[in-house]
Amino acid sequence: MTQHIEAEQIESPVTEDLTVFDGIVDRAQAIVARYPQSRSALLPMLHLVQSVQGYVSQAGIMFCSRQLKLSAAEVSAVVTFYTMYKRKPCGEHLVSVCTNTLCAALGGDAIYKTLREHLSEDGKPLGHEETVGTPGEPGSITVEHAECLAACDLGPVLQVNYEFYDNQTPETAVELVDALRRGERPAPTRGAPLTDFKDVSLQLAGFFERPSDVDGPSAATETLRGAQLAQERGWTAPSMPAKVEFPELDKK
Ligand code: FES
């Protein structure tokens, strides 16, 4: 028989200083209030924590654990599963280069290699999730390779703080990171204006401070091309039958 252990029984003692999160307690409670079960609030709450420190620290894990009455182990398991939660302090900007098959073949691998070498400060190329500059300070950049960023029609793509820069080359990618290092914020190809990693983490937690946080076109001409051609040529998909008979399945 499986023994059910209440989260409170297996909580680790708090040895971390949680006062850094004093300013987000109201927001944490607002997130909890969105869901019938408090544990459902974990993903946005981790983004909220990340908006404070630029990563999910052990203190951040303990904060979520306390707010949601989960064990530290349960929170840790989620943090380490999803790549959007960083376990080391991130740069002001997070640059994600798509190196999945299509982008890689179109130049994504070359872009990633070029950026790792270009941003190196000691002659050793930056590794995955490594940072140039002091994490969190202006002009600091964390670089990572990412799997398909769902913009294959615009590859090779990269993202800065999850905003898209389409149809990149090694040269345009270098220009982009140089601008970020200088403190500039070049406009993404689509979507909202560029902000920084902490700010976008707050947005991912569901808090939008300015109307511009959700501003900007989200669709690209290339993405809409098929629908546009179909419209021009009068193509339509066959309608669904009102009733569909499914084959009998063998009883188990
Ligand atoms: S392979 Fe790069 S966006 Fe899909």
Structural description of this entry:
Pfam families: 2Fe-2S_thioredx. By secondary structure, the protein is of the alpha+beta class. The protein has 2 domains: 7-81, Arc Repressor Mutant, subunit A (Orthogonal Bundle), CATH 1.10.10; 93-196, Glutaredoxin, CATH 3.40.30.10. Helix content is 38%, strand content 8%. The chain has 9 helices and 5 strands; from the N terminus they run H-H-H-H-H-E-H-E-E-E-E-H-H-H. A 5-stranded mixed beta sheet has the order 2-3-1-4-5. Helix 2 runs antiparallel to helix 3. The radius of gyration is 22 Å and the shape is globular. FE2/S2 (inorganic) cluster binds next to helix 6.
Share in β-strands: 5-15%
Named CATH topology of the largest domain: Glutaredoxin
| Main β-sheet, spatial strand arrangement | 2-3-1-4-5
End-to-end distance: 25 Å
CATH architecture of the largest domain: 3-Layer(aba) Sandwich
Q: Specify the oligomeric state.
A: single chain
**Series of H and E elements:** HHHHHEHEEEEHHH
Main β-sheet description:
5 strands, mixed
Bound molecule kinds, no repeats:
FE2/S2 (inorganic) cluster
| Anisotropy-based shape | globular
Q: How would you name the CATH homologous superfamily of the largest domain?
A: Glutaredoxin
Number of helices: 9
Q: How are the elements arranged and paired?
A:
Layout: H1 7-10, H2 25-32, H3 42-53, H4 58-68, H5 72-81, E1 93-98, H6 101-118, E2 130-132, E3 141-146, E4 158-160, E5 163-165, H7 170-181, H8 197-204, H9 221-233
Parallel strand pairs: 1-3
Antiparallel strand pairs: 1-4, 2-3, 4-5
The structure holds FE2/S2 (inorganic) cluster.
